[in-house]
């Protein structure tokens, strides 16, 4: 769903990820047809990066919980 939004409305993607300054910059880029493509690519990259960060945080927390359970 976020990938589709990133392609159609790049600025909305940044606002959903709580990055208002990037959203404002993407909105300015979106105002021109030429700027739409870089804004969409930037939004796609950001969505992918956000997804990777969440996966890493989940893996680190699971690893921490396993180590903690061994100590108890």
Automatic annotation (TrEMBL):
GO terms for cellular component: membrane. It comes from the Bacteria. Keywords: Membrane, Transmembrane, Transmembrane helix. InterPro entries: PMP3. It is found in: Membrane. It holds the Pfam family Pmp3. Belongs to the UPF0057 (PMP3) family. This is YqaE/Pmp3 family membrane protein. It comes from Janthinobacterium violaceinigrum.
């Amino acid at each position: 769903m976020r990938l589709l939004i990133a392609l159609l409305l790049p600025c909305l993607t940044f606002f959903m990820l709580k990055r208002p300054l990037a959203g404002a910059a993407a909105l300015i880029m979106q105002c021109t047809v030429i700027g739409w493509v870089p804004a969409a690519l930037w939004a796609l990259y950001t969505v992918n990066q956000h997804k990777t960060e969440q996966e890493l945080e989940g893996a680190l927390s699971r690893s921490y919980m396993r180590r903690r359970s061994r100590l108890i």
